[in-house]
Design goal:
Elements: H1 2-27, H2 32-130, H3 135-138, H4 159-171, E1 175-184, E2 190-200, E3 206-207, H5 209-219, H6 222-243, E4 248-252, H7 255-259, H8 263-273, E5 281-286, H9 287-291, H10 295-306, E6 310-314, H11 323-328, E7 331-337, H12 338-343, H13 354-362, E8 367-371, H14 376-384, E9 389-391, E10 399-400, H15 403-407
Parallel strand pairs: 2-4, 4-5, 5-6, 6-7, 7-8, 8-9
Antiparallel strand pairs: 1-2, 1-9, 1-10, 2-3
């Protein structure tokens, strides 16, 4: 359309010039040269006028554009100032929230420390007195048939002496947290960790669970040990989530802790305040604890499940299990010894082949974890059985979590 208008204007100009030239030559009596010169002067003057008008119009448009740009720049400046103000408000809010969160965590830790002191006093004043050395202990052997292999030189220690060592370790906070990875197969990428507790005596020697577990349960100290393990698990869990939101930690809890009227309510309150960890922290119970659970233990498990926490069952000696009931209670993991899977599950009461166990568990929302894997040959066989998660010394032994790692504050991203 613009091109047509241009052609039309040019044609009209040519016709007008021709008519004007004819009028000057024929009517005004000018010669052809005079008429041509006069026409050229008129055209030159007209072109100057048109050019001046065009410049004025372009100038007007430029001024309008500059005004528009100035308005846009002013609007941008206002928006930037608004963003700065919003950013400052957000920073202030984060600082306030961090302060509130720190206060909450401090209060939680104070509750735990108070509970530790209460349990220590109870053990020192009442239950410790009730423990008498057994004849086996008096003769220098392991009490109550307890296996003390790997117990850090604790063979021949009586029950009373062992309880004294454990109580002293707890009171002086000589409790270490170890983590052992649970890896995906065949990639061997760390997907979870299992948290393990190790106590140290006054000489710095490790007191292995096999040495103190039974006498600690008898003395009622297990809730105290679980408490300290939980305390460290939560702190380490926050550190891990700061690096990887997909990681998880298995934290062992004893039946004594579920039944303890003094420990469990505070334990439950602590987990309510840390409910955001429910997707990453898995509470682990032995099969003996699960099978022997009475109404109180089941109610305690149900309370944890209602908070969104999932469970794992380990120390599995029998695979004759009601998997649907296990799933309904909130269990999502089942740990089976690698030797049971490799050597045949008939000894564990299973009616299916090892290669079918994973698929069976999957139907009930359970994941199979093969534990105590020690050789590459074991891995090859377990891969044939489609086992997807593995744990054992082949991948890594439990490693000590340094105290400074536990005590380092976590960032807001993990909270």
């Amino acid at each position: 359309m613009t091109t047509a208008k241009t052609y039309f204007s040019a044609f009209a100009l040519i016709v007008s010039c021709a008519v004007l030239a004819f009028a000057l030559w024929h009517l005004a009596g000018l010669t052809g040269i005079e008429a041509a010169l006069t026409l050229a002067c008129l055209l030159l003057g007209a072109s100057q006028v048109i050019a001046h008008v065009s410049r004025d119009r372009r100038s007007d448009r430029t001024v309008a554009q500059v005004d528009d740009l100035a308005l846009a720049s002013a609007q941008t400046v206002r928006e930037v100032e608004g963003l700065k103000q919003s950013t400052n408000e957000i920073r202030s809010s984060l600082k306030e929230n961090d302060g509130v969160k720190s206060a909450e965590l401090a209060a939680q830790l104070q509750v735990l420390e108070t509970l530790v002191k209460q349990l220590a006093e109870r053990v020192a004043s009442a239950q410790l007195v009730a423990i008498e050395p057994s004849p086996a202990a008096a003769n220098g052997s392991a009490a109550n048939g307890l296996d003390t292999a790997g117990g850090g030189g604790d063979q021949g220690v009586s029950d009373v002496e062992m309880i004294g060592k454990v109580r002293k370790s707890l009171e002086e906070n000589r409790v270490d947290l170890y983590l052992q990875p649970i890896v995906s197969l065949p990639q061997r990428r760390t997907r979870y960790y299992e948290a393990l507790t190790r106590l140290r005596d006054s000489g710095g020697d490790i007191i292995m669970p096999a040495s103190y577990l039974q006498v600690a349960e008898t003395a009622g100290i297990m809730p105290m040990i679980d408490n300290l393990l939980l305390f460290r698990c939560v702190k380490v869990m926050r550190r891990l989530l700061d690096r990887n939101r997909e990681i998880g930690v298995f934290c062992n809890i004893s039946a004594h802790s579920l039944l303890d009227a003094e420990f469990f309510p505070q334990f439950l309150e602590f987990m309510k305040q840390n409910e955001e960890l429910s997707g990453a922290m898995i509470f682990e119970f032995s099969q003996a604890t699960v099978n022997g659970a009475g109404p109180l233990e089941l109610e305690s498990m149900s309370m944890l499940k209602d908070l969104g926490f999932n469970f794992s069952m380990d120390h599995v000696s029998s695979l004759d299990i009601d998997y649907q009931a296990l799933s309904d209670r909130g269990f999502r993991f089942l740990k089976v010894d690698a030797r049971t899977l490799i050597d045949g599950m008939g000894s564990a009461g299973a009616q299916i082949h090892s290669a079918d166990l994973k698929a069976l568990l999957s139907r009930f929302g359970l994941q199979l974890v093969a534990e105590k894997i020690e050789t590459e040959r074991d891995v090859v066989t377990l891969l044939d059985y489609d086992v997807g998660l593995g744990q054992g010394y082949l991948f890594s032994e439990p490693r000590l979590v340094r105290e400074e790692i536990i005590e380092t504050p976590v960032s807001r991203a993990a909270q």
